[in-house]
Amino acid sequence: MVRLNLLSVEVNKPDLWNDSVHAGKISREHGALMGKMKEVKAFEQELLEHIEMIKLAREENDSELELESVKALVSMRRDSKVKEIEALLAGENDSCSCYIEVSLIYCFDFFECIDLFV
Question: SUPFAM superfamilies in the record, alphabetically (predicted)?
């Protein structure tokens, strides 16, 4: 939110477009953050609606509606985990290719194993 507020102030400056490269960068970042905020607010609203539907379904003994809402919440949980991983991997170098090599080494002696890695 802090970054979004700073960008909003920057976007509203009258002299922003004096430097079109800088203005484009600021404008794109502001738009991207606004889109993410809109997505989060929509997710929050959907979550609250499903919780209310579950409460209503329990009051009305409507197991079908309750099951439907629970399934929707489970789906939302999956989506949130995907978004969490995307957020964790949103750093500058996270889009770079890499590989992991796993080797199985059998050692009879602890110090022999250490020597292999030193």
Answer: Release factor
Closest CA to 80 of 26, 23, 42: 42
Q: Give the torsion sign (CA, 86, 42, 2, 17).
A: positive
Query: 108 vs 89, 104, 105, 112, 116, CA distance in Å?
Result: 39, 13, 10, 7, 12
Give the integer Cα–Cα distance in Å for 24 and 81: 32
Boundaries of domain holding 113: 2-117
pLDDT digits (tens, 9 = 90+) for 68-106: 999 999 999 999 998 888 888 877 766 666 666 655 556
Query: Does pTM surpass 0.90?
Result: no
Burial category of 11 from C-beta neighbours within 10 Å (exposed 0-12, middle 13-18, buried 19 and up): middle
For 32-58, what is each residue's pLDDT tens digit?
999 999 999 999 999 999 999 999 999
How many structural domains is the chain composed of? 1
